[in-house]
Amino acid sequence: MAAPVMDSKLMQFGVNWARKSAIWPMTFGLACCAIEMMATGAGRFDIDRFGAGVFRPSPRQSDLIIIAGTVTLKMGPVVRRVFDQMPEPKWAMAMGACASTGGPFDSYSTMQGVDRTIPVDVYIPGCPPRPEALLYGLMRLQDIIMREAPSAYIFDSDGTVHRRRSFEEPLIAAATSNKAEAVA
Asked: Is the pTM of this model over 0.85?
């Protein structure tokens, strides 16, 4: 096992700040949540202020995958293959009730949550979640990135990078979209 990559706390802070400020998301829109994800990229919500404005078309160019919609059992291995093609460090978000828990579709062909295939860092509840909820989930992911330790990554002798997943529960980003709920 290799030694920690960086010993300096200031250097690690700088690296984590750069990572959180330049997240390159890849869309994996499978249902109606994808429409809300597209709206988040529009000018009204301005996802560019979080450093995630350009959605990448390839997993090899991205470090965040946003699963938005229903994942079927046939689609599960494809999601895993795409996730494995992403370079480290990489993160995953489950957007919407269908990606998080299967939603209203409890059938023989529907996966009951994408976390059965890939490790999920942030869950965004809703059906479909509003663009504000996606932005809130992105801010929570930035908090996770800032808390990562230097020893979160292991480098093998052949240059392969592995991320140690913490045993903490993934973050559930719940942003209220109803004004009555926000007041209460």
From this structure: no
